[in-house]
Write a structure and sequence with these properties.
This protein is of the alpha+beta class and 250 residues long. It contains ten helices and seven strands. Helix 2 crosses helix 3. It is elongated, with a radius of gyration of 25 Å.
């Protein structure tokens, strides 16, 4: 099951209403594993929750029960108008909430958008799918999940103790996340994405470029067919040291 198929199922998911089918259970499990799908699904649930809250807030007429029991077949004109206004207001509210949700989940399809998403994972200390100190095991794990594994690491990064990794995705494209242990139990995150995932015409330098994003110092560069993003809670001079051989040789 891919993300598109999961979304077709999850868009109808309502917790607690019925026992989930096997396909729904599979889609829910995929949403737990995939950050992009998880964010979309969370937004969907938040949106539907808002709609339910607004509908529950609509006041039921006090004499509704007696009207039903009396079998009334006619409705006063003023009440028909009131019902029409309520329906129109609900429709406007629905459209407004949907528009707000779409605005919030719209993402810039560029390296800047990719960079912001990945740094968000690092800031939240996103959990690793695999905990391992063996770089070969991590690479094999990522290969089995279709993530980039032809990455070439700066020697200083390669010498760091490996902690594990995860297969992420951005705009439906696989991303490899590699985690390395720093001093004081801090973590350095390296994200690897194939350059074909970026919009045509967007070119990254082969020389590392540095920036501070969301409180983390970062370095980005291109090597071969991959683009790299390194983020770590380190002073800039120490981060530069991790990619020094690439800066000197490229």
């Amino acid at each position: 099951m891919d993300n598109h198929q999961a979304k077709q199922l999850l868009i109808d998911y309502r917790p607690g209403l019925a026992e989930p089918t096997r396909e729904m259970t599979e889609a829910l499990a995929l949403a737990e594993r995939d950050p992009n799908l998880n964010e979309w699904f969370t937004g969907q649930q938040r949106f539907h929750g808002s709609i339910r809250s607004q509908l529950r807030a609509i006041e039921v007429p006090a004499d509704l029960k007696s009207q039903i029991l009396a079998g009334r077949k006619t409705t006063p004109l003023w009440r028909k108008h009131l019902m029409l206004y309520a329906a129109a207001a609900a429709l406007i509210l629905f459209i407004g909430l949907e528009t707000m949700w779409l605005e919030q989940t719209r993402e810039e399809i560029s390296f800047a958008g990719y960079q912001n998403r990945m740094i968000g994972f690092a800031v939240r200390e996103y959990r690793m799918d695999l905990l391992s100190e063996d770089p070969k095991e991590i690479r094999n794990f990522l290969a089995e999940r279709g993530a980039p594994t032809d990455y070439v690491l700066p020697s200083a990064v390669e010498s760091l103790p490996a902690m594990g990794g995860a297969r992420l995705s951005w705009q439906g494209k696989p991303v490899s996340m590699l985690c390395y242990k720093l001093k004081a139990n801090e973590i350095a995150y390296l994200f690897v994405l194939n350059e074909t995932a970026l919009p045509s015409g967007e070119v990254l330098s082969s020389m590392p470029e540095f920036a501070t994003i969301k409180g983390l110092n970062t370095a980005r560069w291109k090597r071969g067919s991959n683009v790299y993003l390194l983020a770590a809670p380190l002073p800039e001079n120490e981060l530069r040291g991790l990619v020094q051989d690439f800066s000197a040789s490229l």
